[in-house]
């Protein structure tokens, strides 16, 4: 499955220009998820026109008609089809239009409504998107995700859990990463996740290594959608104490450059390479974090790492630490993927990984 690199919370209406959307594309992002007061057909249509020019795709996540329909109304199948059809008709003329977000973080009492909405959007040939709660905001998480999958029959599974807290690190990150991926694999749909880019209420700003660690742990778990939260700094009047994101007041922050380099020099080429290979499993060396699994028998890797198996011979080896390097030793000779050339180069079976870094290797045997 092709890798999607997305960003949530684009420039606000008065900054919605072709130049701004080209800045998004220059950061190696290919999908814009709307928000930030882009909440009527006029400004959403203008954003789609800017994306048309910049070569981006757009997921409309801020049309109030959809939110009211999914959260507050139950007009029946025929009217649901007609209402969603009108929304899509407003945007389908733009080549950048990919689909609509039906709801963010739904509770189970909305699953039946979402099932109807997903069915309609899919029948009209567009992506129907729903982003799920993390486990700390629901009841038993396996049941929550399982009920969502069986009831809604989604096109993909997406969730957000931001691991870098003001008080330390969120210990439930890997458990949720594994739960979503397991359900996605059983349903045969892609798994997408969100990457924390900024500080806000109860969360600290991530370092460059910590942003890379989120991206690389997602690849180790076979995720094919990486979504940055957020691109533009949310307005202070929204609450939650948001600090600068990738773009702050129209100016790129240091993390804009971090994400641009990560996307263009690493994530896009390695993601395209992984898209040719089936994800098989993920395991941790040493005692795994809560909710995660140890490395499978027969996959011998030393070092403090998270290892994703792709196909019969490929390993995506990610440093399990974002705050320290690790020394990795493979049990067999291997060639390492070079993102600059798109080729595999013979390399040693022992190599270092910097904090948050990863390497894709192809085993000789």
Structure, explained:
- A hairpin with a 2-residue loop joins strand 7 and strand 8.
- The protein folds into two domains: 4-274, Glycosidases (TIM Barrel, Alpha-Beta Barrel), CATH 3.20.20.80; 279-363.
- Helices cover 33% and strands 25% of the residues.
- The strands form five sheets. It has an eight-stranded parallel beta barrel, surrounded by five helices. The protein has a six-stranded antiparallel β-sheet with strand order 13-15-16-21-18-19, covered by helices on one side.
- By secondary structure, the protein is of the alpha/beta class.
- Helix 5 crosses helix 6 (141-152) and helix 8 runs parallel beside helix 9 (254-274).
List the total number of helices. 9
Assigned CATH superfamily of the largest domain: Glycosidases
CATH topology of the largest domain, by name, is: TIM Barrel
Q: How many β-strand runs?
A: 21
Gross morphology is: globular
Structural class: alpha/beta
List the strand order in the largest sheet.
1-2-3-4-5-6-9-10
Task: Give the topology string: H per helix, E per strand.
Answer: EHEHEHHEHEHEEEHEHEEEHEEEEEEEEE
Radius of gyration computed on alpha carbons = 20 Å
Using brief descriptors, characterize the structure shown.
six-stranded antiparallel beta sheet, globular, alpha/beta, single chain, TIM Barrel, 365 residues, eight-stranded parallel barrel, 2 domains
């Amino acid at each position: 499955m092709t890798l999607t690199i997305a960003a949530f919370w684009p420039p606000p209406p008065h900054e919605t220009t072709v130049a701004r959307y080209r800045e998004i594309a220059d950061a190696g992002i290919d999908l814009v998820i709307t928000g930030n007061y882009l909440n009527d057909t006029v400004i959403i249509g203008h954003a789609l026109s800017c994306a048309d020019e910049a070569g981006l795709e757009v997921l409309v996540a801020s049309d109030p008609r959809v939110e009211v329909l999914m959260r507050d109304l139950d007009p029946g199948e025929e009217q649901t089809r007609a209402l969603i059809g009108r929304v899509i008709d407003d945007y389908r003329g733009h080549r950048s239009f990919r689909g609509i977000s039906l709801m963010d973080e739904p509770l189970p009492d909305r699953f039946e409504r979402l099932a109807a909405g997903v069915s309609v959007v899919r029948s009209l040939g567009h992506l129907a998107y729903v982003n799920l709660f993390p486990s700390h905001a629901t009841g038993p998480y396996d049941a929550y995700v399982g009920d969502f999958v069986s009831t809604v029959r989604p096109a993909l599974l997406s969730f957000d859990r931001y691991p870098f807290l003001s008080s330390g690190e969120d210990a439930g990150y890997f458990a949720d990463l594994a739960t979503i991926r397991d359900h996605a694999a059983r349903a045969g749909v892609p798994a997408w996740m969100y990457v924390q880019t900024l500080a806000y209420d109860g969360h600290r700003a991530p370092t460059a290594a910590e942003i890379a660690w989120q991206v690389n742990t997602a690849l180790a778990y076979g995720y094919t959608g990486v979504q940055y939260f957020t691109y533009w700094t949310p307005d202070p009047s929204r609450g939650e104490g948001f600090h600068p994101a990738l773009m702050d007041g129209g100016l790129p922050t240091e993390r804009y450059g971090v994400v641009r380099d990560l996307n263009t020099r690493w994530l896009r080429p390695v993601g395209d390479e992984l898209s040719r290979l089936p994800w098989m499993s993920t395991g941790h060396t040493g005692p795994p974090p809560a909710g995660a699994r140890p490395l499978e028998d027969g996959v011998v890797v030393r070092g403090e790492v998270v290892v994703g198996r792709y196909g019969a011979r490929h390993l995506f080896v990610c440093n399990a630490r974002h705050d320290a390097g690790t020394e990795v030793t493979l049990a067999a000779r291997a060639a390492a993927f070079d993102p600059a050339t798109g080729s595999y180069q013979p390399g040693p079976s022992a190599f270092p990984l910097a904090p948050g870094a990863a390497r894709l290797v192809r085993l000789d045997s």
